[in-house]
């Protein structure tokens, strides 16, 4: 800090001003402050606007009009109060020689481009960081990890907890076949596979949590966007936002997300590393067996398709139409999945689930008087 004013989040300087009465003192920020001179303007937007300490935790969400709102866990909105303080603060700072801002990451008030915002697929600025960015264009806005020596060593469990929070937020409201429950089942499958296939668990766990975060955008685009490719970019962006500084880890997780799709549209998006193959297999396992049948009927029901039909009817019908039954999904896709698994452990689990589906549809055909369906040669 060579002269001028640096605006710093007060919790980074050791003040116990967080919502839970704790601080987030950063030795790197203190060293940065001590070595560079200049004046520090310590701010805590949430305390300084009168919210008190401790206070209920808050988060950001985007409303249907596209406005980002700050709400506490009781549902009480604090947007106007905080924005009023931000406006007064930047006005006070305007007359000063402001050299930069060092602000606490991921905070709904202070986060610099790395705060989760429910309803947005990308991380964003906290409300104070956004006000500072608008009022001081070109002035550095840094998170605490961006000052020299400030990159935190992120433990695996902290990283995965942060990733889990992000994935859960991004999948809120997803259709049931690809919702948070699906993500948890895929992670459970991956853990089973990893018992037999030793690999980099952190990469696999993070990738399973993030593998479908591109789905909501694919649905919103009417299928034009490829959720695997889009999800890979989002996954990499979010990993950096939650504090991952190891670019190799970011890229390996991103690649697992890019490669997980059964019918990938991207040339070269074929899983190659063990981690990529495990994430692919874990996802495929959730599409077959009892859960696969359940998902197929659920999806067909959502389309208004028939409960059951003949193979000839199913195969002659169009996708997303009346004949797009669970049986059609089985004939077109699910019965081929077991032959496309990429790990030995995955193949074993898939064989068992495949036999269950064969038995199920044979029984269904028998109950419906369609035995010839089951004995007919496969196409
Ligand atoms: Fe205060 Fe910002 Fe720290 Fe939150 S992140 S406690 S608002 S200084």
Description:
The chain is α/β, with parallel strands linked by helices and 379 residues long. It has two domains: 142 residues, no CATH class; 218 residues, Hypothetical protein af1432, CATH 1.10.3210.10. It is elongated and about 85 Å long. Iron/sulfur cluster binds next to helix 2.
Structural Rg: 25 Å
Main β-sheet description: 4 strands, parallel
SS elements, strand count: 7
Mean pLDDT: 93
CATH class of the largest domain: Mainly Alpha
Q: Ligands bound here?
A: iron/sulfur cluster
Instruction: Please bin the fraction of helical residues.
Output: 40-55%
β-sheet strand percentage:
5-15%
Count every helix, treating DSSP H or I runs of 4 or more residues as helices: 16
What is the CATH third-level topology name of the largest domain?
A: Hypothetical protein af1432
Cα distance spanning the termini? 72 Å
Principal-axis shape: elongated
Q: Numbering strands along the chain, what is their spatial order in the largest sheet?
A: 2-1-5-7
Regions with little confidence, pLDDT below 50 for 5+ residues: none
